[in-house]
Design brief:
The complex is a heterodimer of chains A (464) and B (69). Chain A is built from 15 helices and 13 strands. Chain A is an alpha/beta fold and 464 residues long. Chain A folds into two domains: 200 residues, Amidase signature (AS) enzymes (Alpha-Beta Complex), CATH 3.90.1300.10; 191 residues, Alpha-Beta Complex (Amidase signature (AS) enzymes). In chain A, a hairpin with a 6-residue loop joins strand 12 and strand 13. Chain B has 69 residues and is mainly alpha-helical. In chain B, 45% of the residues lie in helices and 0% in strands. Classes of the chains: A alpha/beta (464), B mainly alpha (69). At the A-B interface, helix 10, helix 11 and helix 12 of A face helix 1 and helix 2 of B.
């Protein structure tokens, strides 16, 4: 059964639609794999067995009756536990939120994937309130990297990375405020898409930083990433942050190749990672024949701007909880949230102005280039429990700095595909960011697909 | 600028102002994080953007109201 479970979402969907395998069979295999392997990984916080079986039977009934069940028919998927799941409190990685009333309805993106035939199997572990790059969580236990369980998954979409890398599901949803889809994609060796800011609905997901929050898919194939992204697009009157862009499908152009694309490597600030980070970028740039190297202006300030906006908006969101029950926070987020309550307004306003300025600078870059390449993380997955990271000879706190390369990019909402690279020098993966101009997700996905079909980027199931 | 910033005093003052309880065990972490925030602020405020830079957030009047209503 692992053959079908470990295949891609696109292949599962095709098999279920054709009647070659039932949705219930695939979902039962997924649930069995979770039951067998999750005790070693801790990816799931809620397994929705009854719901998933009932939903799979509906898909099978559609197939039997000749109705189109959708392109993701019978595909098991799971979501970071900040997405509303009908009937469950949306814990968002916290102790406090599990006292909330059960969600009355699923998040919009969950509804859209299920409308395309996919089957939700549960909620996934995450860093508390998404303020995390490690995958560590004191309330639910650390999520472990399926490729090496002594190491971090990365966060904060830790369970999303671990569930897909271990083959429990072929597809998961995560969120990315400063890198929380791209970091676990890097550490767990997966493809991840952070769409353009404002592209996908955030309705009925628990927020962190409204100015910077994005939702998106993680998968083991680029076609699955594109398919999930395509069905998740669309207007949503319940999300005031959503842009009014039309739906722009990416699947149809996925195999168009990279001819004519102008690709540059980001140097300077982005070259300060460990040797593996630079080696992964070398491999990708060689495959794309990208010889140009550019430096973005004021990247460190841009990253600092994201840091301040994140701190201020996150602290504002949690202020009442911090006053009333700070002891119930994860110690690793509590100290940061408390400090962030003290950020003066003028710093945040200046950061928002810097955001406009940096956007204009990036717009100029995209007049010359279509795609920018940079590491997703400065290192491969660190050992669990590590607290410090050395970059460019400077020792710094690990937790806040794993996102040093992702944060400046999401600061201005650019679409990014994380593509996993496996170097000969290490048993661990590391991803590169394929960064496109605003609203050009399809271009970034096309490049990722080229790297995948060339054998440069790949996302195997880990043996757990 | 950072050298002149008494981060421990600032944390103590702001905690009292905001009505926050910071237990002794938490204080070193909060102080370290406030120092990190200040370093970020020094970077952000160190770039002169002039008087006409627009903040990034956009407010859309009338969002959610159906056209023509």
């Amino acid at each position: 059964m692992s053959d079908i479970l470990f295949s891609s979402a696109s292949e599962i969907g095709a098999a279920v639609r054709s009647g070659r395998v039932s949705a219930e069979t695939v979902v039962e295999a997924s649930l069995a794999h979770v039951a067998a392997k999750d005790p070693n990984i801790n990816a799931f916080t809620d397994v929705a067995v009854d719901r998933a079986i009932a939903r799979a039977r509906v898909v099978d009934a559609d197939v039997a009756a000749g109705r189109d069940p959708g392109r993701l028919a019978g595909v098991p998927f799971a979501v970071k536990n900040l997405f509303d799941i009908r009937g469950l409190p949306t814990r968002a990685g916290s102790k406090i939120n599990r006292e909330l009333a059960p969600a009355a309805a699923d998040a919009t993106l969950v509804q859209r994937l299920e409308a395309a035939g996919a089957v939700l199997t549960g909620g996934l572990n995450m860093g508390e309130y998404a303020y995390d790059f490690t995958g560590e969580n004191v309330h639910d236990g650390n999520c472990l990297n399926p490729h090496d369980t002594s190491r971090m998954t990365g966060g904060s979409s830790s369970g999303s990375g671990a569930a897909v890398a271990s083959g429990m599901v072929p597809l998961a949803l995560g969120s990315d405020t400063n890198g929380s889809i791209r970091v676990p994609s890097s550490f767990c060796g997966l493809f991840g898409l952070k769409p353009t800011y404002g592209r996908l609905s955030r309705a009925r997901s628990f927020p962190f930083v409204p100015s910077l929050d994005h939702l998106g898919p993680i998968a083991r194939s680029v076609a699955d990433l594109a398919l999930a992204y395509d069905v998740c697009q669309g207007p949503d009157a319940e999300d005031p942050h959503l842009s009014n862009r039309p739906v722009e499908p990416s699947s149809e152009t996925l195999d168009d190749g990279i001819a004519g694309l102008r690709v540059a490597r980001l140097g300077g600030y982005f070259a300060k990672g460990h040797a593996e980070a630079n080696a992964a970028v070398d491999v990708v740039c060689k495959a794309l024949d990208a010889t140009a190297e550019i430096e973005l202006p004021e990247v460190a300030r841009a990253r600092a701007g994201a840091y301040l906006i994140t701190g201020a908006e996150g602290a504002s969101l949690h202020f009442d909880r911090l006053r009333a029950r700070a002891a119930d926070f994860d110690p690793d987020t509590r100290d940061r949230f408390l400090a962030n309550t003290m950020i003066p307004a003028l710093w945040v306003t200046k950061a928002q102005k810097l955001r406009s300025w940096f956007r204009a600078e990036m717009n100029k870059v995209f007049e010359t280039y279509d795609i920018l390449i940079a590491p997703a993380t400065p290192c491969v997955a660190p050992k669990s429990g590590e607290k410090l990271l050395t970059l460019d000879g400077v020792e710094m706190p690990l937790r806040a700095n794993i996102g040093v390369f992702t944060q400046p990019i999401s600061f201005v909402g650019l679409p990014v595909v994380a593509a996993p690279i496996w170097l000969k020098s290490t048993h661990l993966p590391i991803a590169v960011q394929i960064i496109a101009a605003p609203w050009a997700e399809a271009t970034a996905l096309k490049v990722a697909r080229y790297l995948e079909t060339s054998g440069i980027a790949r996302a195997p199931v880990a043996e757990v | 600028m950072t050298a002149e910033f008494d981060v421990e005093a600032y944390v103590a003052l702001m905690a009292a102002t905001l009505g926050l309880t910071i237990l002794p065990d938490w204080r070193p972490g909060v102080v370290a994080n406030m120092a990190a925030v200040k370093r970020a602020a020094d970077l952000v405020t160190g770039l002169d953007l002039g008087d006409h830079a627009e903040p990034a957030p956009v407010f859309t009047a009338g969002f959610g109201v159906e056209a023509g209503r």
